[in-house]
Structure formats: structure tokens, C-alpha cells
Write the C-alpha cells for this entry.
Amino acid sequence: MAHKITDECVACGSCLPECPENAISEGDPVYTIDPEKCTDCGTCVDACPSDAIEPA
């Protein structure tokens, strides 16, 4: 199961360098996670200061 970024995202970029699969990209207005690349490792969840990433 992939993770998703909710509207709580403040687009700070903290999650971007943490993803080992490069599944996160900048979106407009919030970042997005490619469910095809996401391996559900959870490193992005720990990096997010606004708790905007959750299981899809």
C-alpha cells in the first residue's frame, strides 16, 4: 500500500530527499507520491513536520 500526501502539506520539501525510491515530487500546491514507485517504507511520514502523509 502506498502513502499519500494530504492537503495538510505545506510544501516544505522535508520529505523529498528522504524517499529512497524517488516517489515524491513537487505538486501544485502540495507534493505528491507516485503510488507505482512507493514501497510503503514510511521514511517520508517520519520526515513530515505537518503530519500530512498517511497510508493511501
